[in-house]
Amino acid sequence: MAKHKREKLKVFALGGVGELGKNMYVVEVNERIFVIDAGLMFPENDMLGVDIVIPDITYLTENRERVQGIFLTHGHEDHIGALPYVLKQLNVPVYGTQLTLGLVRYKLEEAGFKKAKLHAVHPDENVYAGDAKLSFFHTNHSIPGSIGICIHTSHGMIVHTGDFKFDHTPVDEKAADIRKMAAVGEEGVLCLLSDSTNAQLPGLSGSEKEIGRELSDAFFGANGRIIAACVASNVHRIQQLFDAVAENDRKIAIISDHIENIVHIAKDLGYLMIPDGILLNEDEMKRLPDEQVVFLTSGSQGEPVSALAEMVRKGENLRVKSEDTVVIADNPVAGNERMVNQTIDNITRIGADVIAVQSQTHDYGHGSAEELKLMMRMMMPKYFIPVHGEFRMMKTHSELAEAVGIPKKNIYLAEKGEVVEFNEGNAQWGGKVPAGKVLVDGSGIGDVGNIVLRDRKLLSEDGILLVVVTLGRKTKKVVSGPEIISRGFVYVRESEHLLEESNRIVSEVLNDSLNQNVSEWSSLKSGMRDALSRYLYDKTRRRPMILPIIMEV
Fold first, then answer.
1. If residue 293 lies in a helix (H) or strand (E), which one and from where to where?
2. Rounded CA gap, 66 and 33, in Å?
3. Per-residue DSSP letters for 15-47?
4. Where are the alpha helices (DSSP H) in 111-207?
């Protein structure tokens, strides 16, 4: 790699800081731009009607000729989910491990995108992009093929850990490459970006092996059918479910298209070992006695459109019965607790048993405080930037960094778009780049903003009133109306007086304006809206959206 005596470096996040999800980090080495991850985030409660949220990549599209590629740490949605949208604007090479790229390929095919330049990497090999060298190290997470990424510079490496934990008995028996992590630290780390998700949890996270034992115990204790729900991309958990099925002489059918596709991808790439004869389709399962049946479905996060939710709502093909045992095989991600609890409550109402296996062992795919300290000890970075977490998580992570000896002045708690700049190996704040969130609603990308969300919120809270008036084109007199149509505001049959008085107020405003030769439609609409809004708020303490519609004949 060419050495630059006056190498200028920049590091910033376009997503993934101050929030859970939407991970996208940018490292600039002189004029070269390297992007780490391109994830999505699911909408918050006030984002009515929004499907997903992705990072704002304005900075990358404005500098597209400098972007060397997107480097993926692993295959979870919050790290790869935005790629179908990003690559349509920024068709650059994408690098990741085999399983990660298998999942990316599936997502891109779903989106109809066929031009991706996908390059498989192995944790033990190096990649050269532009004039920069990148290397990798294997980590443990809840999905195989997870890696950390090192960008080599003349002042030391910039390292992104990806999502990680230290599991000494992992499901696939491939422990984290601690030797290589330590070697990276020995070689010299200028700046470390590290996963903050579980910084607030003390101690160590549990081993995945413990979850496997609990799943097998839960299956052994069930008398009727078992319905197991997990996150589709948690390949390790799916493997443990298959193992538990085989150990308990049961058969399993997958009733989630998303999980089925991921199972095929992982099996073909050698990441899933399915015991012979246990996998059947739904029709074959119907011929077996209940005590031999397991259904694998999505919905462990309580998603209202998941297969499990459909089963709870008494779907046509398969319904949860009171004799069933429902196994929730993943802990809810932060923010999803309410939906998960609601799903569990609905299952309990039916009379089925619910076993939330993972919550009993407090196992997570992310390292707890002591594991985060170990990573920092091995890397020994000069500078530290906590990432991947809400601000409180990042703040706690920064305190852990101080505890292991990283000076407070060398720790940068960055918001989205805030640039940390390195000159001659010394860091300082370097301004801001455009950053934020782009809302995806149906086929629309970015066309739903704060104003649209405000209108949706208003409609959901106080409803809408349409005021329809027809005017004579020449006479400028009222030909018909005004007619008031209410939706979501009041029950019309019980509010006749309110609507009659509203009609009178609108007629009065309209006639006064026309008598004063006010012919501007915007003025007419504004006058009707203001008068009606004041009256309705005085009578109901509600502010419905009022839409005057004026037509000419």
1. strand 293-297
2. 6
3. ESBSBSS--EEEEEETTEEEEE----BPPPTTS
4. 178-187
- The list of the chain residues with pLDDT below 70 reads 1-6, 43-51, 299-307, 309, 313-317, 331-337, 358-364, 441-461, 475-476, 490-494, 515-521
Model confidence over 385-417: pLDDT tens digits?
Answer: 999 999 999 999 999 999 999 999 999 999 999
- The H or E element that residue 252 is part of is strand 251-254
The pair of three-digit structure tokens given for residue 180, joined into one six-digit string: 């290589």
Residue 493 carries which DSSP code? G
With residue 514 as reference, give the H or E element that holds it: helix 496-515
Cβ(55)–Cβ(435) below 8 Å: yes
Strand partners, 8: 423
Backbone angles phi, psi at 145, to 5 degrees: 75, 20
Backbone angles phi, psi at 528, to 5 degrees: -65, -45
For residues 254 and 296, the answer to whether their CB atoms sit within 8 Å is: yes
Do residues 194 and 161 make contact, with C-beta atoms less than 8 angstroms apart?
yes
Nearest-10 crossing angle of helices 496-515, 521-540: 150
Each residue of 471-485: b (16+ CB within 10 Å) or e?
beeeeeeeeebbebe
- Tell me the two tokens of residue 204: 């160590």
Neighbours of 444 (CB within 10 A): 12
Name the residue among 140, 130, 85, 144 with its Cα closest to residue 110. 85
Structure-block tokens of residue 241: 């479910």
Which conformational region is residue 5 in: left (phi greater than 0), alpha (psi within -120 to 50 degrees), or beta?
alpha
β-pair partners for 132: 129
Mean pLDDT in the chain? Answer: 84
C-alpha of 449 from chain center? 18
3-state secondary structure of 367: coil
Residues facing 151 on adjacent strands: 134, 158
Summarised one tens digit per residue, pLDDT across range 125-145 is 999 988 889 999 999 998 999
